[in-house]
Amino acid sequence: MTNTTPGAHIIDGVALSKQLRAQVTQRVQALKARGITPGLAVILVGENPASQVYVRNKVKGCEDCGFYSVLEKYDTDMSEAALLERIDTLNRDPTIHGILVQLPVPKQIDANKVIEAISPAKDVDGFHIASAGALMTGMPGFVPCTPYGCMKMLESIGYDLRGKHAVVIGRSNIVGKPMALLLLQKNATVTICHSATRDLKAMTLQADVIVAAVGKRNVLTADMVKPGAVVLDVGMNRNDEGKLCGDVDFEGVRQVAGWITPVPGGVGPMTITMLLVNTLESAERAAA
Ligand code: GUN
Fold first, then answer.
1. What DSSP designation does 57 have?
2. 172, containing H or E segment
3. Is the CB of 121 under 6 A from ligand 1?
4. 103 lines ligand 1 (CB under 6 A)
5. In tens digits, what is the pLDDT along the chain, a chain of 288 residues?
6. What is the set of domains in the chain, with CATH numbers?
7. Which residue intervals of 127-199 are DSSP H helices?
8. I need a surface site. Which of 39, 68, 95, 101 has the fewest CB within 10 A?
9. If we measure between CA atoms, which residue out of 224, 235, 220, 230 comes closest to residue 259?
10. Under DSSP, is residue 169 helix (H, G, I), strand (E, B) or coil?
11. Which of 146, 128, 132, 122 is nearest to 279 (CA)?
12. For 35, left (φ over 0), alpha (ψ -120 to 50), or beta?
């Protein structure tokens, strides 16, 4: 029997990351030849198991590309003052070009205060209000890594966003809002959907591009997708068997979509790749 089921092309985040990281490694070598090694400080407060995996992967990504990286782990009861003091020291450390405090932080620490304490020049996560403002107004600045990675994935398939309808599901400061701004910058017509959206399916059925960034399984199913649409899955969830899965019903949606990103192996590796790009660019700026 021949398989005649139409299927989406897969956008392979591992393969694309490999290409981009090879370019990063070359640029790191060029900087090192000038006596500068890009440095990233990653801070983890507490024991969140998912965060532990993320920070390990971030530090490994750094090492693979020849960066200098430090992983600082602190107890769950670390005070806000102690963390702010640590950030202040790293802000003034010339060997460090990027500072990342893994979120979420324990409840005695105000995440906004922490984000605003990081020097905008070292804000490689792109979470500082200076970075957010730069993105909103089209000024140069650090772009948050996950939406930046999504844009690179669209670029990798040669997708022209001009005049297309992009629907972003989720309105977080980390993904949904910056994603919408980046799509807008490329001349898409953008709709942001969220938990109070009345008829999500009516919105997604109109979309040429869908970005699912909610953090809940099966937010997007095949009946909600226009044939040929591009579907980017930012979700990182576990299914009933404990396996990693996204926000999209991958097996269903791939029958309808034109392009789709898998989980794992899609947006996740791209997020780390763009963190490396941001850190490298910070170091290049400092060296200029
Ligand atoms: N928690 C979940 N995603 C992220 C991220 O991209 N950066 C940081 N710092 N924390 C996160």
1. H
2. none
3. no
4. yes
5. 454 556 999 999 999 999 999 999 999 999 999 999 999 999 999 999 999 999 999 999 999 999 999 999 999 999 999 999 999 999 999 999 999 999 999 999 999 999 999 999 999 999 999 999 999 999 999 999 999 999 999 999 999 999 999 999 999 999 999 999 999 999 999 999 999 999 999 999 999 999 999 999 999 999 999 999 999 999 999 999 999 999 999 999 999 999 999 999 999 999 999 999 999 999 999 998
6. 35-119 (3.40.50.10860), 144-268 (3.40.50.720)
7. 129-137, 145-156, 176-185
8. 95
9. 230
10. strand
11. 122
12. left
- Distance (Å, rounded) from C-alpha 86 to C-alpha 2? 61
Closest to 201 in 3D by CA, of 176, 225, 234: 225
Cα(284)–Cα(31) distance, rounded to whole angstroms?
7
11 neighbors 259 (Cβ within 8 angstroms): yes
Q: What sign does the dihedral 250-150-210-225 (CA atoms) show?
A: negative
**Residue 125 annotated among the catalytic residues of the structure:** yes
Ligand 1: residue whose CA is nearest its atom 9 = 102
How big is the chain, counted in residues?
Answer: 288
Q: Under DSSP, is residue 85 helix (H, G, I), strand (E, B) or coil? A: helix
